[in-house]
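Bench log, entry 3. Co-assembly request; chain sequences pasted below exactly as received.
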Amino acid sequence: MWGGRFSVKPAELMQAINVSIGFDKRLASQDLAGSRAHAQMLEAVGVISADDADAIGKGLDAIAAEMAGGVFPYRDEYEDIHMNVEARLRELIGPAAGRLHTARSRNDQVALDFRLWVREACDRTVAQIEDLQRALLGQAEAHADALMPGFTHLQPAQPVTFGHHLMAYVEMFGRDAARFRDARARMNECPLGAAALAGSPFPIDRARTAKALGFDRPTANSMDSVAARDFALEALAAASICATHLSRLAEEIVIWTTPQFGFIKLSDAFTTGSSIMPQKRNPDAAELTRAKVGRILGALTSLMVVMKGLPMTYSKDMQEDKVPTFEAFDALELGLTAMAGMARDLTPVRERMAEAAGSGYSTATDLADWLVRTLDLPFREAHHITGAAVKRAEGLGLDLSELPLAELQAIEPRITDDVYQVLTAAASAASRMSYGGTAPAQVRAQVLRWKELLS
Ligand code: ARG
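Structure output for the full assembly:
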């Protein structure tokens, strides 16, 4: 492609380090779309003839067909996707192919292709997140009143409902989807026409190519256009946060499926057995989803380090932007879809969770609140009395709701029979009617709100 100034072919090692077609072939459809828009614009502004534009358009169609049919010749000697397409175009249509690269450089070409790819990846990810949210919503609706222990420090804290717990993730994933939408909106400016770095002397119409490719507008600085990769960094940051959320839910599935917890069951479809221990059912899909964050956060770190300290504008370092980004979105897709599968597959063991919800003195706060409300005690004093009651119950091997009234009255004589109404897990959860609280009525209201948001 640049033979004019060179007399000797590159060393084999030079080719080995330089070649990118092995991975940037994933930009093929974006590259063709960019070339189509560019050729049509060049014709519209009179830089190339209608005949040449027509030949280029037909040649690009033929290339797309070859790619779809799996017969396009990807060749290392043409280094990357851009030159592979151009070389093939010349074989197919002859010298007119050479006019396609007028007013364009591989620098704005790759900036465009990669931006288009990341934009599509963001759109796909939003759809995958929303599918996961729908899966969680289905379970939350069915189990809006299923009691389970709510934890802090992974110690039983207060009773909640399974629906409420799942809705916490619906909120997290909702913010993840919003982050991808925000990133998409910010990246939606077209770098094509920046050419190598300084812009073009040809009378190009950048607004036209921007529009043809679905962008809101062209980028406003030609140097920034070819130098910027923060659109990918931002998408990878959103991916890393989303993967972190996935790993937390995955971890809970791992915990909940242990026989010790036994809160949920996964079907054979999402568990594996052990080759030596016949009793085992391992939650491999959850474990692997939990692990994906390593790869995804690694991709963000990798690209951050690639970009750090690079002078304006394009440097070949930036070719290293693609592999981690592709890998990260592949991993995130697997994680999101596997998690949606598990969310639909799982069956909560309601009795077991309810039983756990009522144990561990999880209604101690309810007793303290009752003392404040009924006896007008300061909360600190109520907390102290409750602590004594828990200690007594523990000594007798009883739950709080099983502690005889006489025992309670020995600690605080004004306590009446009434108190037992707040000491069950069901009463505790149902009483938390504050907006966003765990009362089943509140959970159902949130399920409804999200169903509307996702419809
Ligand atoms: N394969 C290159 C990349 O991915 C395309 C841009 C090459 N530009 C250049 N001036 N060598 O970054």
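The beta strands are 147-152, 155-161, 189-190, 217-218, 264-265, 347-348. Residues 20, 24, 80, 106-107, 110, 314, 316, 318-319 surround arginine (CB under 6 Å).
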